[in-house]
């Protein structure tokens, strides 16, 4: 099991990672959704729910609920053999349906990590837990929140800054500063999506071992086939990899 956490201030683009990851068969959990559900139950704002929830149950209550959801999903996944069959219509000249199998991988993304306590908590329960941080300047984030128009988003810039300050009090600045990967979400959105896909394909999805020495000539038999177990398909990056819009493909 591989678990990644996504962090970033409101409007930075965390949900974009979740949407793209879902298409790749990665199960995602939003800590913000946990808080919003609690806000509906308590009939208060998400900001108030986030503060009151932690005061009542401790700093790790939202993390606890996410961990439980991961374990429950992993158990269900193992029970149904971990795959889902889908059928897509192809656009070839014969107009025949193209069948494929989408594999649900044993990888999870937790969106919306805010405090260093949550990071420590997840790292105690998941080996090699990694953090992905998204950076974007305040004005761009504010404009995105206005376009998004969610219930907890404000069109008042002063309220927007107050929300940032509340997030910073949780310790999100320390989480971003110590992230394992950094994504820059400024400029054209397609550049950011491209970098997200590169990160998912190279780092998040399970890597398959490369089998070298195979020959296309079947008559040579299996004697020339060598398997390098443990060899990774992708190059190993350093402890911190930065993906930005100028990243050359």
Key words describing this protein structure:
single chain; 249 residues; alpha/beta; Rossmann fold; 6-stranded parallel β-sheet; two-stranded antiparallel ribbon; 9 helices; 8 strands
Secondary structure layout plus pairing:
Layout: E1 2-7, H1 14-23, E2 27-30, H2 31-42, H3 46-57, H4 61-79, E3 83-89, E4 97-103, E5 107-111, H5 116-125, E6 130-135, H6 138-148, H7 157-170, H8 172-177, E7 181-184, H9 189-204, E8 241-243
Helix pairs in contact: 1-9, 2-3
- Which radius of gyration do the C-alpha atoms yield? 21 Å
**CATH topology label:** Rossmann fold
Q: Let me know the average pLDDT.
A: 79
Low-confidence stretches: 82-90, 218-225, 230-239
CATH architecture: 3-Layer(aba) Sandwich
Shape: globular
* Strand/helix succession: EHEHHHEEEHEHHHEHE
- CATH fourth-tier homologous superfamily: P-loop containing nucleotide triphosphate hydrolases
Strand content: 15-25%
Number of domains: 1
User: Helix proportion of residues, in percent?
Assistant: 40-55%
Q: Which CATH top level class fits?
A: Alpha Beta
| Helical/strand content category | alpha/beta
Number of helices: 9
- CA(first)-CA(last) distance: 29 Å
Main beta sheet: strand number and arrangement?
A: 6 strands, parallel
The number of strands is 8
Name the strands of the widest sheet in spatial order.
2-5-1-6-7-8
